[in-house]
Design brief:
CATH topology: Nuclear Transport Factor 2, Chain: A
CATH class: Alpha Beta
Strand order of the largest sheet: 1-2-3-4-5
CATH architecture: Roll
Distance between the termini: 32 Å
Number of strands: 5
Structural class: alpha+beta
Order of helices and strands: HHHHEEEEE
Radius of gyration: 13 Å
Shape: elongated
Helix content: 25-40%
Strand content: 35-45%
Largest sheet: 5 strands, antiparallel
Length: 102
């Protein structure tokens, strides 16, 4: 658990989250429009057996989305798009391939 908190603290200090994304995410969490990032990250890291490099909060096509950049144990960089309202993985992008949950 300590490692997750350290990763989360590092993620929250990256420019992508520390800018306007941070304020928008905090407001959406307060209004119970989205699941807190702190609840999403451990699930995603466990599912992909990876470490978090960067997190962004965006609104795409009317949906709040967490965009998580991860690195797997094998050293592969992947980007996971998560519906911030439901926690559902929307899309996974990795070098050379892309998977969508449609």
């Amino acid at each position: 658990m300590k490692h997750v908190l350290i990763i989360l603290m590092c993620a929250l200090t990256t420019p992508a989250v520390a800018s306007g994304d941070h304020d928008a995410a905090r407001d959406a969490v307060r209004q119970k429009q989205v699941i807190p990032l702190a609840e999403i990250i451990p699930v995603i890291l466990n599912e992909f057996d990876a470490r978090l490099l960067e997190a962004e909060f965006e609104r795409e096509h009317g949906t709040y989305v967490y965009e998580l950049e991860l690195i797997t144990r094998a050293g592969r960089m992947i980007e996971v798009m998560v519906d911030a309202t439901t926690g559902e993985i929307l899309e996974v992008e990795q070098e050379g391939w892309q998977e969508r949950n449609d």
